[in-house]
Every structure is written in structure tokens, then in C-alpha cells.
Amino acid sequence: MKRKLHYLSVIFAILLLPATAFGISPPPIPLLLYGNITIDGQPAPVGIIITAQINTINVATTSIAIIGKYFIEIPDGLANEGKIIKFKVNDIFNEANQRQCTNISTIPSINFNLAVTTTSPTASPSAGAYSLKQNVSLASTGALSIHYTTDGTSPTCATGSVYSNPIAVNAPKTIKAISCYPNGIFSSVASFVYIINQIVTPSGLPSLLDNGTLAPTGNHSATSTPSLNVTQETTINVSSNNGTSSVLLPGDTIITSTNGQNFDATALTATGVSTGSLSGLGSGAVVDGALQWGITNLGLQFSIPIVLSIYVGDSFNGQTLNVQRSLSGNSGWTSDGIVPPATCVVAAGFCSFSATKASYYATYHLTSPLGGGNTGSGGGSYTSPVTATSTLSAAAQKVDSNKDGKVDILDFNALMINWGKTGTNVADFNSDGKVDIFDFNLLMINWGK
């Protein structure tokens, strides 16, 4: 029995000998890190990938098996004593997610919580008002992709357009974008509101041809072209009738002649017209405001309706006026080419309406219910002063500047005309005493209602 105990003691002693006594290196001591993990304040879902880096080299990778918890093993912890471990979560790195390896020989496991914040896309140039068209670039550090929309809806990582090239903005536009990361992680939606509106006076029309805002087709010259492309939204302000009227040309509008022939774009003019200089509207027609835009005695047409706001004075506010057009201003008055109903409800002194043809425009009322002798093909019936009845919600009514029961381009035009003004104003939709980006945001929220 004593001999057996002696043998067992010898064996036990051998087992207690250091491995180095036999020329064997001891296994490296790993460093174990564990803890809670959140993404944008919420427990990280199962499947999220965590990568540990030391000196930009990946030393360990794991995936989350329990919601909001992680466990990762760094091999050979002693060899990394004093070094910084950086943690990437789905390739997202936040500065707080790094830790120095210390006292690994005595503390081989560390409780270290990880918190990840996703980054919403950024835009360049930044959102705001510009007089020239912009090419907007989107960026998001660490994201696999960026999805965006320009129709006012919010994108997801399964909807919207995938960003690849700068977005051309040549008219007022809201870009909404979201950053998409691996394993279903995504950021909050970022919104960028751009107001693009080049404003010129009639004397500046030649500059629109020079800077490419009005671009002749192909290799045609401005003096003989079958069409003009409006490359960015532009407003032409015209002094008329003791006020300033305007013509808004939407971006991407194509201007052509009604006879299909080439025309001289350098002959384009915009002028205020004396109401007394017009004739041929018919018996009982009293012209309240007029404007010329286009080429006199030449029919022009627009692929996208343009918006005209003719100043008639505050005394007409709330009244409905008729609208007609003529090539010469003396005959051939018609509502053809005026977007139905070929009337306007005056707001803030302006009669605003849309048109698809040029070039003399007149707003008028009839002094007799009979309206006898009106030779125009439209607008010949008597229109009494009325105020439009709105069926819009209370919020939408605030931005319906002309009170026609619709939130559309006419309200946008009122906003542009009054942009930057202070005090009481029909375009101050939020009633803060100034017409600015906040009023534009309200208009976009209610657009199309």
C-alpha cells in the first residue's frame, strides 16, 4: 500500500511540474470581453456582427446570439497588453467603443458595454435657398447604401431610389434619405429642403440664354431653334399696373412654337401692359391687370404649365376674375391655353393662374350680367365677385394663399413673390412675421391637398 502511495505521489508531482520543464510552451491566455450592446439606444438584435481590431488588424469576430448581449474572445491577451482594442459593430465604429488591454494576467475577462449610434446621411451643398440649380451629393460613413426619395415620402432600406450619383435639383425639392447598414440596421431619415428659384427682370432675359437657363435644342442657335429647354426654375419679375407681376417657368419646361417652326429665342420679352392699351375683349369687359410674356404675334406653348401672377391691387382680394390671352393684345382673345377654369381668386392683390400658351394675358371682370359682345372663345359669361369656399383641413387652409381650395403651384408662387418679406403677409403661413424656409416646409407638408 505504501509503495502504491509513493507511485501516486510521484505521478502527481510530475503533473504539477510546469509545462516548460518538458519543453512545452503554455497556451496563451485569451482576453474575454462581454457586456450589453445597444444600437441607437435599443438592444442590438441577434445576428449583428462585432469585430475587434488592434492596430487596424481584425483579431476576433463574433455575432450576437442573445438580444442586447455580446461575448468575444481576444486570443493571446498577454501579447496585447497595453494595446487599444477597437470594436466595430456591423462596420460602424464609434469612438466610445474602444478599450486598452491592461492587467490581463490577473483580469482575463472584462465587462465592457458597447453603444452604437448610426449616422443619417449628410447632403452637400446643405439645404437652403439657391438662385441656381444644384447637384446634391449624399454621404454616410460606414453605410452599405443610401436610399432617398424626392416625392415627399420617407424612404426605407427597401424603398426609394438607391443613391449613386449627385441628385440634380433645378426646382424646389425635398430630398429625404436614410443610411442602410448590414443585418437590417438603418439610421433615422434625414430631410433636406431646397428652394431653387432664379429671379430676373425683363432686362435679364438675354442672360438666361447666356447662362444656359434657356437652352436651344441640340446644336441650334438661339436665333433659330425648334425648342427651348428651361433647365432650372426661373421667375421673371415685371413691373406693371403699379405693382410687380411675375412669370414662373418651371424647370424642365420645353418651349416650342405652336406652328412647329423654328423661332428666334432672343426675341422673347416680358413687359407690363397698360390696361387701356388692350382691345377686342368685348362689350362690358373691364381689364383689371395685364402682362405680356413671349414673342408678340407668335404662338408659343409650354410643355409644363407656367404660372403667372398679375398684380391687380388689394381692392380685388377675394374676388374671382376671368383670364384670357391673345397673340397681339388687340384681337383673338381666348381661354385656350389658360389652365381651367380660366379664372383666378385674387389674394394679396395678385391674380394667379397657370397657362400653357403665350403671349398677352389679361384679367378682367364684366360690368353687365349679359356680357354682350365678348368675342373670346372662353370667359364670356359674367363672373360676379365671389370668395372661394374651402374644404381643406385647418392646417392646409393656412397655406392656401389664394383661397382656391387647393395647395398647389399658385400658392408656391405667392411664397416666392413674398420670399424674405416681414410683417403681415399672405405667405407667412406660420404667422411668425417673416416669409422663410419654415413657411416653405408647411407648404410642402400640405402640397397637393
Structural write-up:
There is one protein chain. The chain has 449 residues and is mainly beta. Helices cover 10% and strands 36% of the residues. The strands form six sheets. Strands 18, 19, 20, 21, 22, 23, 26 and 29 form an eight-stranded mixed β-sheet that branches. Strands 1, 2, 5, 8 and 9 form a five-stranded mixed β-sheet that branches. It has a five-stranded mixed β-sheet with strand order 11-17-16-13-14, with helices on one face. Strand 3 (49-54) and strand 4 form a beta hairpin. The longest helix is centred in the first third of the chain and has 15 residues, at 2-16. The protein is elongated, with a radius of gyration of 36 Å. The protein starts with a helix and ends with a helix. Residues 8-16 and 369-389 have low confidence and may be disordered.
Give the structure's gist in a few sentences.
This protein is mainly beta and 449 residues long.
Question: What are the SSEs and their pairings?
Answer:
Elements: H1 2-16, E1 31-39, E2 42-43, E3 49-54, E4 57-63, E5 69-74, E6 84-89, E7 98-100, E8 109-111, E9 114-116, E10 122-124, E11 128-130, E12 134-139, E13 145-149, E14 161-162, E15 167-169, E16 173-180, E17 190-196, E18 198-200, H2 205-210, E19 214-216, E20 227-230, E21 234-240, E22 243-249, E23 254-257, E24 269-272, E25 285-294, E26 300-311, E27 320-326, E28 343-345, E29 350-357, E30 359-366, H3 394-399, H4 409-417, H5 437-445
Parallel strand pairs: 1-8, 1-9, 11-17, 18-21
Antiparallel strand pairs: 1-2, 1-5, 3-4, 3-6, 6-7, 10-12, 12-15, 13-14, 13-16, 16-17, 19-20, 20-23, 21-22, 22-26, 23-26, 24-25, 25-30, 26-29, 27-28, 27-30
